[in-house]
Amino acid sequence: MATVSTSSPDGTVVAPMLIVAGPMIQGPLPFRMPVFVSVSNEAAARGEVKTLKTRGVDFIKVQDAIPYDLYLAVAGEARRDHIPFVGHIPPVVLPEKASALGAPRRFQTRGRTSPDLLATFRRNHTWQCPTLVVLPMLWKDREVQYTPEDLTWAGRLTAMNSKMVLLMQNAGVGLLAGTDLPPGAASGTIHDELAALVKAGLSPMQALRTATCNPAKFLNAEFCESFERCCGGTSGAAIGPHLHRGSLHDQFGACAMPSRTPSKV
Description:
Layout: H1 2-6, E1 24-26, E2 36-38, H2 42-54, E3 60-62, H3 68-80, E4 85-88, H4 95-99, E5 106-108, H5 115-124, E6 127-128, H6 134-139, H7 148-171, H8 190-200, H9 204-209, H10 213-218, H11 224-231, H12 236-239, H13 248-256
């Protein structure tokens, strides 16, 4: 992916724009997976940041099972190497601390919010990717037997996450659409995520922006204006009836695409 990403400027590849994170940096693990890089000490954490930057990734992503000292080592090296730092906030790290550790980035807070925290996110340009659909999709897994109490708590957590999303939107915190699910998932698609954002209280246009204009702003891209010209004057009432899976791409996909050849694939 990184190889393709770096071959676009000279015109050798014609493809959509890809922003590549590479494998996620994780704490010590008893197993190996292609999507994770396990580090066990601060020197290894800093070295992995340098390695990933050399390989051409666009930002460094961390998972949430990483010790506090290794998290700080990754964040500090990312800042020194001038590469964006994103990912999940581990339980051992306060969101305020994570927000203060580097340049604009994307984090997932999972239940931790307050007016002061939201003000910190906005001041530090810390973006949020709620992934509202991922937990309900896990609970629908028929191979796992959940008790009624499990499902009661699941419903409470879903409601809390939805409430947090609306609070962040109203506080001016940048929101990005995402699912945390594989591309081939039958349910829990990006269209389902947009519908979940509307159910949480965002207007249809605000939800669409989380998958169009907002990512462009987050990535400092230049094609946000095409979406605004095409859809910016459309009322939420006109969009609302069409905010379901299958119709979004037909109605708005062309608006969100760049009108020029991208500088990176």
